[in-house]
# Entry
Amino acid sequence: MSKLRRFQAASWDEPLIHRIGAPGRRGQHFPLVDGADLVPEGLARTTAPDLPELAEPEVLHHYLRLSQQTMGMLGVSLFGTCTMKYNPRAGEQAARALAGVHPQQPAETMQGLLECVHGLDLALRALSGMDRFSFQAAGGADAAWTQAVITRAWHAARGQGNQRTQIITSLQSHPCNPATAATAGYEIITLPLGANGYPSLEALQAALGPNTAALMINNPDDMGVYNPEITEWVRLTKQAGALAFYDHANFNGVMTKIRARDLGFDACMFMLHKTFGVSKGGGGPAVGAYGCTAELAPFLPGPLVTHSDGHYALEQPAQMAARVREYMGNLQQVVKAWAWLRAMGAEGLADASDMSVLLNNYMETRLLGLRGVTRSHPDQALPRLEMTRYSLGTLFEDTGISAVEVQNRMADFGIDAFWLSHEPWIVPQPFTPEAGEMWSQEDIDYWIDGLAQVIEEAYRDPALVRNAPYNQVVGKLDDTNLDDPANWATTWAAWRRKHGNALPGD
# Structure
């Protein structure tokens, strides 16, 4: 057993920034100007904005104290289905070079940036077998949306736009696949999981037909289960006249091992903010790199980078289906991913993939030895890849302690909350850790030993776990009146409208 560290989060009795400072304090003094000619009539303020007034050091100290309380993701974080890996400083340094670049400046003035974008395009083509990539999609949902609109445009160009109205996915596909397809107006057919942890070929065949527009699937799925019949799935989909889209959100365990095009897929997406060493958190910025065959490339969102005779240029695809983001998307993240790929090289990618699979199966061996822990589809003999879906259902039945309460208590040992599961929960009280390749065996052991400690406490003294955390900035919140607007406001101005200057506890 690891010796669990004595952890105590920083805790400051820090007021809102609007409650500190004093009238007249400034971080920067600007000359007074007559704004009458600068602001159109009717838009000028009649009263001063309700902004905090502080000197620069006060602002710095305020946000420093807040950052100490909200560092996050600095403990051991095995956040499953979103490969949380180290974001090298080299990538951050490379992205800083974009600070002075404007998206509307001529391509001739940003040849180095376009070279990076085109280089990542070529690298992802090599990893996937696809013919062209767009980096405009800002995350996985954007990339899935791109697939939906390209699917419609492709079928419309073939005279079948009104006929092909259904998209097939599975219960364990990422929710962005059915959600974006539904938003695009498609009928969604969701295949149930079979005894082996993936839908049966018979279920797929029953769903396919003249109305099928596309198959949108991730493999391995969010339980770490790889569908060994995937090539037959793609063949049957194509035979029915539909497109096959590979959601590569869980690419870490199979990178350099399989290529989407070799399996017959027409398109795929990679999460640069998961697999490719780019930071993830707080809702972005992210990139869902979308790649497709030459047949679909005319429908891609542009602009795309081209290369000829040592010169990089921008072009708009001939039949662009839709724009999903301004300009070329979050290019800072593209540069970070390009730097990461160049640093890793092909051998490094292969090693990272091997290590992520090895660590996941090492974790499984230890976790299944803990009291109250079971695995989804326990009878499936095949090893899981980069993650495994576990259940604390037995622990919950025995002690009444939920997976969320276990999360809260593990945070007292400096362990970030584990990922539970996308909805719907197909196993009770789920948790889905993912080691990736960046965590050491000591880190993995510490995480598992922390879980073991909490499980022991749950059986011995459930109240101890139920009332956690104790060592964090805040304890367990009372969510009784969480939906009551009188208890919350999203801005200081909204709170002032409801309560004036009074705050809870005043």
Notes: Residues 89-344 form a domain with the Aspartate Aminotransferase; domain 2 fold (CATH 3.40.640.10).
